[in-house]
């Protein structure tokens, strides 16, 4: 039951209205609906009729208007109740009414002396108007178990007599005298400590100091720098010494191999590198002869005929991970670099390229333009991707939909026929097989004769089916030799 503070003003309620016959939510009811009669009844009082009204805009955010009525949705309606319904003097008020052919579900509101909307003290003035533990709020115990009586007993122990005695001890000369005596001594010491008497060094301390220092060096492993051999994990991981010899995320001295990584070993390796640099010209002179083996010449500017073949490329060899973003740019291709002679028939086939391998992100702007492609190279790539001319092509999908509404799938098509036009010629009977897949979908297995051209246009016809004869279906297929 909803609670409203007595004397509240501008109160609105949500009325739920259903159909009197089937109980479904009523939609679109307006303030002047036929037979509408809304009212309120205060406890032990007569019914009071309310004059229904349209809100100002009307809008659900409009200000309160006595009798204001507006649809919220899903059978709910905002209804602005007059202030008199919530006046003090009773404990409840009911909102009810009737509408022709509908049922207004009544609701009873409890009128209370506190304010349910006040999140601090419910409008109860006997409580502080501040959150607990805040300034002006109720005290709380964060740890729990706050015993105010015990606190009172403890404070009662601080009597006037005891406070007087404590004050006398502090101000009567006792504590003050002690502090004054300490101040006299400390004032005698100059800022530089010249007031202190020098303590002479005792030679008996030498052995003790040396022993303590040595123990500290051993404890920290610093004796291993010169006086003791390194054994096992003597250096802590990620220490400065460990990081000097290890580039791992966790620097580990134990991975240091002095025969390869010591300064002398690094010097020897640098000498070898210098020797290789001396022979750089000789190595470069040998490379072209090693490269010329049928795959690329010494200039790496041309490719032997039919080198890039289907057999030379593994299935899924060209993947997205192998091609960096914008790696394929125009600058990478010489004019006519990719031509028909360099690409064997069917070399770049679907099976050779992994899903998602060649995407827009892999190509720079203008990566492959007319200057980079030989005219016949495009034909070679196309022939590897399109259906092959004069070769049977199975599972060509079509969808029959009813001619009556052009939407509903047709099942059990009867009186079917397939004709095709090859390269713009007259339609002739197809020699393939049409079979039903289901849900209006059919598959056509085209024969080699059906595919004997560059551009094939098929026409699929049926004279019957469920729910009726379908529309004719036209489908165009371009083969490897069609453009």
Write the layout of secondary structure elements.
Blueprint: E1 2-5, E2 11-19, E3 37-42, E4 47-50, E5 69-73, E6 76-81, E7 92-99, E8 102-105, E9 107-112, H1 148-156, H2 160-171, H3 174-187, H4 205-219, H5 240-245, H6 258-261, H7 263-278, H8 280-291, H9 375-385, E10 393-399, E11 411-414, E12 417-422, E13 428-429, E14 433-438, E15 441-446, E16 455-461, E17 464-466, E18 473-478
Parallel strand pairs: 1-9
Antiparallel strand pairs: 2-6, 2-8, 3-4, 3-7, 5-6, 7-8, 7-9, 10-15, 11-17, 12-13, 12-16, 14-15, 16-18
**Largest sheet composition:** 9 strands, mixed
Helix content: 10-25%
- Helix and strand element order: EEEEEEEEEHHHHHHHHHEEEEEEEEE
The radius of gyration over CA amounts to: 49 Å
Structural class: alpha+beta
State the end-to-end distance. 78 Å
How many beta-strand runs?
18
User: Uncertain runs with pLDDT below 50, 5 residues or more?
Assistant: 294-301
Gross morphology is flat
CATH topology-level fold name of the domain at 2-112: Immunoglobulin-like
CATH class of the domain at 2-112: Mainly Beta
CATH architecture of the domain at 2-112: Sandwich
Amount of beta strand: 15-25%
The helix count comes to 9
Average predicted confidence as pLDDT: 81
